[in-house]
Amino acid sequence: MQALSIKKLTKIYSNGNHALKGIDLNVEAGDFYALLGPNGAGKTTAIGIICSLVNKTGGEVEIFGHSINRQPEAAKSCIGLVPQEINLNLFDTVLNIVVNQAGYYGIGRKLALQRAQEYLSELKLWDRRFEQARSLSGGMKRRLMIARALIHEPKLLLLDEPTAGVDIEIRRSMWKYLRRINNEGTTIILTTHYLEEAERLCRHVAIIDEGKIIEDAAMTTVLRKVQREVFVLSLGEALTETPELPGFEAQLNDPFELEVAIDAEHDLNNLFAILSRQGIKVASLRNKANRLEELFIRMVEKKQKNNAAAIASTP
Amino acid sequence: MMNLTLNWIGLKTLVRKEIVRIMRIWIQTIVPPAIMMTLYFIIFGKLIGPRIGSMGGFDYMQYIAPGLIMMSVITNSYGNVVSSFFGAKFGRHIEEMLVSPMSNATLIIGHVAGGVFRGMLVGVLVTIVALFFTKLEVQHPLITLSIVILSSTVFALAGFINAVFARKFDDISIVPTFVLTPLTYLGGVFYSISLLPEFWQKVSLANPIIYMVNAFRYGILGIADINITYAYLIVGLFVVGLFSVSLVLLNRGVGIKE
Question: Cβ–Cβ of A52/B17 closer than 8 Å?
Fold first, then answer.
């Protein structure tokens, strides 16, 4: 069963901005799907159309088989949205916000109150239930938006940069929670600028740029395309100059930090064997950037270069 | 096919939310109209009224009381919906409702019901204030109640349309200042249109508020400058017309969706 099916979706804003240029996207039920792209690529427009917040110019969108145009009630009932920007009624209380949202989905007050207790407790907001939303911290507001989106127990949860501006501790607890509800059956579509987040959580990834999908595959397939990774090694003893590492590109950042680029045909065993032969002790190592980030930057840059070349060759 | 249970629960939720909002900010929503109407009664009724004498067979205070009640109902019904809906647009929490499966008709009715609630609440309060200054014996209770609810609905719908088009806070005060207030003051609240020259009497008949104020005055005092049937017809047409316009605007996403 497909949770989301998008066919030839286009959006041209009244100012002429061609935000979506006929995208196709299919998300299987139960998937954890990343929709990535640089700012202004069309991610939020796509999510806005799926949730009926933005009118589409053309194309078809179906949620669990329900067309957003022909069966809007059934389609909307399946969706929960956590938008990019805080859109809470800041003067309303935490409890009222989630209970009212349940009411808009036809959930009676008694059940809504039960669920509100469940989700607000889960997201550590129950103690703040009688406070106005404006008194909450940024992270709490984000969690409240998640509770609000889940109160009607949607089959498809859309998260538009849910962890933007949230500290790492809260971000990790949100990841844990999202992973859990995904394991329990909720399909999740996530847009984020934290590519580590997408790599850790998602099983599928689509990259959108300038209104077009430029990559759409399983995360493992996409990551296999990464041809080169850069590792930063912390050294046990200081070096005075960059060592000769045949087959590897190395650079000494400071006496205790060595940066080594590894291509797909080499591996870490090779590198450690050479380092060991030279008596260089490695205390620890880390990826300079995560793999998805490397790939993402490369894909977007490649597309921009292609566009520039096409413009240059135009007579 | 619309899910009636879902929309009924959605409507109850929306009305409850509006009532909670009105009561939470009672110092902005309920107190000012009561104070303003008290001043009207003191100045126009108590101080100036005795010099004017009687109008339509009633003393001036009694004559203007129904008009002042209706004026407060109209302005508060309008003001509630325009500020509530525009506030939701401005704060973007309108999205809570737009993403939900609740129908657009329910969304309109819920907001209008909130406006009618505030209009009625203020109307009752102003009536209580009026009773401190004059005697009001309702002649036709059914007409009084029905016309005040219908008039309140008309202006709640008008407030909704204003909020749909409004892009900034200035836009929600333009219509009340430049359209609603003049129409209300020229709507027979303070005078009988029979006092006007014939030409201006005819011009006045183009003002829908004339019909509302006079039908309400008929309900309470038993006198009116216009035919009550016309009043119901006109108010009814406005309700249907403005609701249809609101629904079309919302279905198209005017002022709400990109």
Answer: no
Q: Give per-residue burial for A260-287: e unless 16+ CB within 10 Å, then b.
A: bebeeeeeeeebeebbeeeebeeeeeee
Closest CA in chain B for residue A132: B24
Convert the pLDDT of each residue in A152-187 to its tens digit: 999 999 999 988 878 888 888 889 999 999 999 999
Q: Which residues from chain B sit within 8 angstroms of residue A153, using beta carbons?
A: none
CA A56/CA A248 separation, integer angstroms: 50
Tokens coding A289: 């950037």
For chain A, what is the domain count?
2
Q: Is residue A296 part of a domain?
A: no
Structure tokens at A179: 């992973």
Q: Where are the domains of chain B?
A: 4-252
Task: Examine the domain organization and report whether A157 and A285 are in the same domain.
Answer: no
Residue of chain A whose Cα is closest to the Cα of B256: A53
A106/B6 touch (CB, cutoff 8 Å), yes or no? yes
Q: What is the CATH number of the domain that holds A54?
A: 3.40.50.300
Q: Alpha helix (H) ranges present in chain A? A: 43-50, 72-77, 94-104, 109-122, 138-150, 168-183, 195-201, 219-224, 268-277, 291-313
Answer yes or no: are the C-beta atoms of B90 and B82 closer than 8 Å.
no
Contact flag A73-B12 (C-beta cutoff 8 Å): no
Q: Is residue A302 included in any domain, yes or no?
A: no
CB pairs under 8 A between A and B: 92
The answer to whether residue A299 is domain-embedded is no
Structure-block tokens of residue A204: 């599928």
Please judge whether B91 and A76 are an interchain contact, meaning their C-beta atoms are less than 8 angstroms apart.
no
* Smallest Cα distance from A36 to chain B, Å: 22
Residue A303 lies in a domain: no
ipTM of this complex: 0.91
Contact between residue B100 and residue A104 where contact means Cβ atoms under 8 Å apart: yes
Same domain, A41 and A128: yes
Domain carrying residue A172: 2-224
- Tell me the pLDDT band of A42, cut-offs 50, 70 and 90: very high
**A272-293 residue pLDDT tens:** 999 999 999 999 998 876 667 7
Let me know whether A108 and A242 are in one domain.
no
- Domain end residue (candidates: A169, A203, A224): A224
Alpha helices in B46-140 (DSSP H): 49-52, 60-90, 94-98, 104-133
Distance from chain centroid for Cα A150: 18
**Contact across the interface for B258 and A54, Cβ inside 8 Å:** yes
Q: How confident is the model at residue B212 (pLDDT cuts 50, 70, 90)?
A: very high
DSSP H or E run through B242? helix B228-252
Q: CB neighbours of B202 closer than 8 A, spacing ≥ 6?
A: none
